[in-house]
Every structure is written in C-alpha cells, then in structure tokens.
Amino acid sequence: MALVVIAATTVIAGCSATDTNGASSPSASTTSPLPSRSSANRGPYEDGEYSVDGEYGTRGSSIGVSLTLQNGEISAVDVTPHATDETSLGLQRRFAEAIPALVVGKDIDDVDLDRVAGNSHTPDGFNDALEKIKAEAAEHVTRS
User: Nearest-CA neighbor of 108 among 73, 78, 138, 141?
Assistant: First the structure.
C-alpha cells in the first residue's frame, strides 16, 4: 500500500514540472474536460475565423486571441501579447508560444486553461476570449 501511495505522489508531482527558471512547462498546463464556465455558450458554432481581446486581472490586462473554428474544433490559434511591462510581456510571449500545442485539435467547449508556461493570470484572459468567441460563433448559427 505504501508503494502505491509513493508512486501516485510521484506521478502527481511530475504533473507540475518546472523549468530551471521556476516556470511551469507547457506540458504542465491543463485543459479541463469539464464544461466551460458558461453553459449558455455551448455549440453549435459557425465555422470561421474569430479575433477578440480577452481581459483579465484587476488592472485591465488583455491579450489578443485569433482562432479558426471548424466543426466546433479549434484548428488554428494565435495569441497577441498586449503587455507593455517587460516582465508581463515576457510572460505573455511564453504563453502565446505554448497555446497552439495545448488547444489546436480540441473541441472549443472542452478548453478551459489553468496555468500555462508560468502564467497563472493570462489563461484567464484566454478563457475570456474563448467565451466571447463562442458567443459570437453561436450567434452566427442562430442568424442562419
């Protein structure tokens, strides 16, 4: 029994790997299989390209998110950092580099990011952008 607990602890600890700078690696990031924050914004969605700004934090921080949606799945994504402070800009750039590997090929309703590439707040901006895109894409379907 003790060996099982030790093995489970080792596996769990491995999920929160950090690089030598103390930042979480992209593989330590999470997408939740649970429904997104807003059940009002669940498919169907119109295919297309969408671009919005996602906002987060108390200081009006934001990031630009452009993505292509096909059959409810994210087929391409690009994140544009908006930070002006060098530290925040560096964090947003690392976040932007990590995102495609985490979300491309996933159903938009299944993506809910937590901590990515050392960022604990920028994912909130990405999640906000996804909610805006889902609302826009769903609205296009209802107008058709």
Answer: 73
Residue 53: which of 109, 126, 140, 135 has the closest Cα? 126
108 vs 36: CA distance, rounded Å: 9
Report which of 77, 16, 53 is spatially closest to residue 128, judged by C-alpha positions. 53
Per DSSP, the three-state class of 61 is: strand
Cα 54 from Cα 64, distance rounded (Å):
6
Residue 99's contacts (CB-CB under 8 Å, 6 or more residues apart) are 77, 79, 116, 126
- The full set of domain ranges for the chain reads 43-143
- What is the rounded distance in angstroms from the CA atom of residue 144 to the CA atom of residue 58? 37
CATH class of 43-143: alpha beta
* Structure tokens that stand for 45 in this block: 């969605």
The 10s digit of each residue's pLDDT in 82-131 is 999 999 999 999 999 999 999 999 999 999 999 898 888 999 999 999 99
- Classify 105 in phi/psi space as left (phi over 0), alpha (psi -120 to 50) or beta: left
Is the pTM for the entire model greater than 0.85?
no
